[in-house]
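G., before I forget:
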Amino acid sequence: MGSQSVVVRFAGDSGDGVQLMGTQFVAATALAGNDFATFPDYPAEIRAPAGTTFGVSAYQIHLGARPITTAGDAPQVLVAFNPAALKVNLPLVASGALIVLNVDSFTSRGLAKAGYQTDPRKSGALDGYQVVEVDMTQATLDATKEFELSKSDAGRCKNFWALGLVQWMFNHDISQIQDWIAKKFAKDAKIRDANLAALRAGHAYGETAELAAAVPHVKAIEAQFPPGEYRGVRGAEALSLGLAAAGELADRKIMFCSYPITPASTLLHTLSRYGHLGVGTFQAEDEIAAVCAAIGASYGGAIGVTSSSGPGIALKTEAIGLAINTELPVVIIDSQRGGPSTGLPTKTEQSDLYQAVYGRNADAPIPVIAAATPSDCFEVAIEAVRIALRHMTPVMLLTDGYLANAAEPWLIPDVDKIPKIETNAPKPREAGQEIGSVIFNRDPESLGRPWVVPGTPGLMYRVGGLEKDLRTGNISYDAQNHQAMTNLRAAKVAAVAKFIPPQDVEHGPEQGRIAVVGWGSTFGAIYQAVRAIPERERVSHIHIRYLSPLPSNLGDLLRGFDKVLVPEMNMGQLASLLRDKLGIETVQLNKVTGQPFLIAEIVEKIREMLAPAAVRGPRKAVRGDRA
Amino acid sequence: MSAQLAAKDFASSQEVRWCPGCGDYAVLKSVTRALADVGAVPEKTVFVSGIGCAARFPYYVETYGFHTIHGRAPAIATGLKLANPELDVWVVTGDGDGLSIGGNHLMHALRRNVGFKILLFNNEVYGLTKGQYSPTSRLGTRTPSSPNGSFDSPIVPGAFAIGAGAKFIARAIDVDKDGLGSVLAAAHGFEGAAFVEIFQNCIVYNDGVYNSFTDRDKEADAQLQVKHGEPLTFGADKSKGLAFDAQSMTLKVVDARANPGAVLVHDETNRTLAGLLLALAPPEFPVALGVILRQPGQSFEKAFYANQPTNLVRKGRVADALRQTSTWTVPAR
């Protein structure tokens, strides 16, 4: 990996502009022709006390030749704006890494706030790293002196000074960032010019000899991309665009009803600018109102979508049951985060799989699908709407905090080539036919009922949460009918499997020693880990998009491997699901630290499984080293 | 379709299953009559309800109907109005459904001024769950869950509504055909959220709870039918009137004949007056009925669409939106 890609991490106070710096660095990376993946890692507090370890915000970028699928394991470059940022991030960085320190904050007070007893620059804590000490604040003040800003305003330009320096390190052109600054700060010429001056000064600083020696291996690496038009995209953007595309493909309005919650709110913000694409957004009074409004919108003929994170989805649960019972199409998006309860709002986790598949009262199945990468969110959003409209059912779409905020380059899809989304129209009512038997005349394949909306003459029907007659839709407390309706609801979700593609193998042979099975945002780490294992070991990567129902060939496919390894950012929820639905025992690799998997963690587990039986201890170690 | 529909055309074929003698029957009659009177179009009319006795209402009306979950009808109806603002939507709720489990949604529907009618059937008791006290039950109400009498203070629905920013508040008694009929017609004509509290008798669990002002021999003195532009008088021969007492900043009862100049004239656009009228309670004061507040204003759904540059009409293409950022092209090799 070393020469093929580089991992860079910016870290500072929440208010240091680290996230902004990261996104600008990414834009320049893309233009330089590199592949990339990002990981914004920020605290729950908006502005935690300056200089404290719990207020540290970080942005990690992995750039280089294709394919880059994760934000990288250990950063080789760390830019730390203060001692707290160094303290939190030092354990993550690779040995020998280049560490750029903003030294003006390394005062006795700054060190004490970070919990350092002694200055790490003098204690030996930084031995083995290449450390570049810069007084960024002073350098920024010098560069912006002519604009006569207050000291605090001038100091705020230092993220651009640092960005300029890093751009120089990676041979990136700064003209695009200059354009961006000019636009962003157009309203205040002084601030605009000061930021531009800081950027240029940082870039110029890099020219000095002392730094040039420190970064010999960090040169622009051109990636091999298939030809086409590209853009960078974050998961939340791709998901928003996917929903808008689904509305266009189905020729219906999207009504996105949501209540703000981290990390799902980005969707609400993005979609609220898509009115011209036929997307309405409703900020509801609470999570329950949000899902209910989505159901009301679907009942009225728009495509109702609601979105939240785990705790909010829990509140929506009863209403999802109503959508099941009334056979209305609703898409429920769960941007998973660490839990239970409020848990770790800004940290990622995959621990809502049980909630998605099993988490409702009574026998209440719904289809569940999950996005793998930021750009995959686009396709998955369209797929969720397609399933909801075809089968007339609520659909759960799982994403997570990592996917929502992470970015990657994206070959812009051709919307005209995506098949239209069909809606179920009612068959004409025959003379004397009960209205209900028109409304609930389900498609024999998908079991989806016609989508009849108020305003349609001659088909006024009543529907609700009470059990209804299989044929007429009238209220029914009949015992056999309830059995039949329960069977129907199960059969309808099972029918989704008839329409989805069979499970394929992402990488590796169709049969072998180990199948590494993942779902959701662990895709990138598993992808790289499996590729790091020699082909002769016959280890394959299988990524599951459709979690409920599972693809019908999945059981047979997995039984073609000696062992199945399931790495998950939870305590084994997919492992349980595979045992429950397919009777397959798996080896679990679980991590719930709020951080994505490192490639190395998965590689290590695969090697451990490939090694001969544990009784032969020494040999295991040898093999592990070799592989 | 252009033929004038009658009340019976709005009655569905479903067998009505309320207890014999329930006030809901009278309300159902008044509503179907009002639908006929205002010329409602059945396929454009939707009744949305939550859970409770009153929530059965949609099954009995020959229009579209959605019997949802407990307390959430206003939220579902809001989504429905956003999807299709042309629909004529009626929310049917009760004192438990609307003010207890669903209080939050009711509050927000009112302050947003979403364009639907909200019929709150207030019988001061939980009927469907067999007689527990409700958030409108008076102090000391003995029920299976309050054997020693309830001890939590009740809410006044109209006061709640005005506090939430409602722009239309009306009241009527279940069996008062004329009063309820005119209130329903006025609600139907209102652009935003029209809140109608209906005093409804539960013959099984709370029979006679409103007798103090609905009994024939008491109604003249205990009911005040308000009308915009007319003096606030009541009692036999309209001998009593309401005047403003500046000292206590509240209303007082005066002899309307002796002090005709002191009697207030009803102004349905005056929120302060509406607040005072809604707070009146027997035995010192009559219960105010009719349209107590009506402040025309833009409905939420109209504002929702007006807030969008294209009125939410799809004018752009996703293909273009995908390129609304910096892009770069990798040439074919």
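Chain A touches chain B through 72 residues (CB under 8 Å). The two ends of chain A are 15 Å apart (CA to CA).

More on Monday.
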